[in-house]
Protein: (apollo) hypothetical protein
Organism: Parnassius apollo
Amino acid sequence: MAFMIKKLKQLEILESDDLNYVTSKLVCEISSKTCMFGLCQSCKDNIITANEIDYNVNDKIVWPMCMPKKYEYGEEGNKRTTNKMVKAEREGSIRLDQFN
């Protein structure tokens, strides 16, 4: 999520790329699982407000994201598999309701 927020800040759609700041605008309490999982009745419908600039919510943007990828290692006949975090590109629209 941090990479997505940074990209939206770069496009001047969000006012900040600070993950804690943006998260605090969405939830009552950052340390509450109920809030963070969208189950809190007080904040589950909170939305992020965008800067008032001209943009199309359907425009596609690309941002980096860390994702697990299977990785094989070892000699033939003794191969092992593990998950490795890699930086990949993700594409989506500018719609801010993706955060909820």
